[in-house]
Design goal:
membrane, VAS1L protein, mainly beta, 3-stranded mixed beta sheet, 11 strands, transmembrane helix, 2 domains
Length: 198
C-alpha cells in the first residue's frame, strides 16, 4: 500500500510504502493482517526502512491507533530495520493512524481494532479504586458479623417501683388521720388507691 505525495512543496517525489502481510491463525479461526514494514522512498530510492511491531488486526477489521511513531515517547511501534542505514536520521509519526489492507467494502474502513492496551492507566486506576472499595466493604461486613449483642448490659435493670397494697383493718373508714409535725395528713384505706399525702 503506497501513499504518493506528488508535487507538494518539499515532499515532491516522496512515497510512503506499507508492506502488509496476511496469515491464517487456527486458534482464532480467521485471517489476520499485519503491517510488516514501512519504507520511505524519495526520488524512487529507498531512504529509510522501519520494521513495524504490534500493528495487526483481523482481515475483516481495520487497525487504528492514536500515534504510530518511531519516537520513544509514542511507544515506538516503528523500529529502524538496521543500525547502519539512514533510518535513524528519520523521525516518522502518524497521528490518528488507521489502516486496512484487505476486505475493503464501499471505500470505508471496517470496525477498528484499537491499539490501546487493556491495562491503560485509567483502567488500572479504576481497578485499584474498586479493590479499595471491596476491602472497605469486606471490613464492614466482618465488623457487622462479629458485632456482639448489647442486651446483656441491660439484664440487671432496676426493679419497677412497687407499691404494696395496704390491708384494710377497718372497712368503714375511708381515711385515717396521720400524725406529723406541723401538717395534717390522711391515708386512704381503699384497696384501689395508693398512698396520697395532702
Amino acid at each position: 500500500l503506497s501513499l504518493k505525495f506528488g508535487d507538494i512543496g518539499n515532499l515532491k517525489g516522496l512515497v510512503i510504502r506499507f508492506l502488509l502481510t496476511t496469515s491464517y491463525y487456527q486458534l482464532s479461526v480467521q485471517n489476520w493482517f499485519s503491517l510488516h514494514r514501512l519504507q520511505l522512498l524519495y526520488n524512487h530510492s529507498i531512504q529509510a526502512t522501519f520494521n513495524a511491531t504490534r500493528i495487526y488486526a483481523p482481515s475483516s477489521y481495520s487497525y487504528h491507533c492514536e500515534h504510530v511513531s518511531s519516537l520513544q515517547r509514542y511507544d515506538a511501534l516503528l523500529i529502524p530495520s538496521s543500525a547502519n542505514d539512514l533510518s535513524k536520521l528519520w523521525e516518522v509519526t502518524f497521528i490518528d493512524f488507521q489502516i486496512q489492507g484487505f476486505n475493503i467494502q464501499e471505500g470505508h474502513f471496517a470496525y477498528a481494532k484499537d491499539c490501546a492496551s487493556f491495562f491503560s492507566p485509567a483502567i488500572l486506576m479504576g481497578m485499584v479504586m474498586s479493590l479499595i472499595l471491596l476491602l472497605v466493604l469486606a471490613y464492614a461486613l466482618h465488623m457487622l458479623i462479629h458485632l456482639k449483642s448489647l442486651d446483656r448490659h441491660y439484664e440487671c435493670k432496676a426493679s419497677p417501683a412497687y407499691f404494696a397494697q395496704m390491708k384494710d383493718n377497718d372497712m368503714g373508714d375511708e381515711k385515717e388521720p396521720l400524725r406529723s409535725s406541723g401538717s395534717e395528713s390522711y391515708e386512704l384505706r381503699n384497696q384501689q388507691f395508693y398512698k396520697i399525702y395532702i
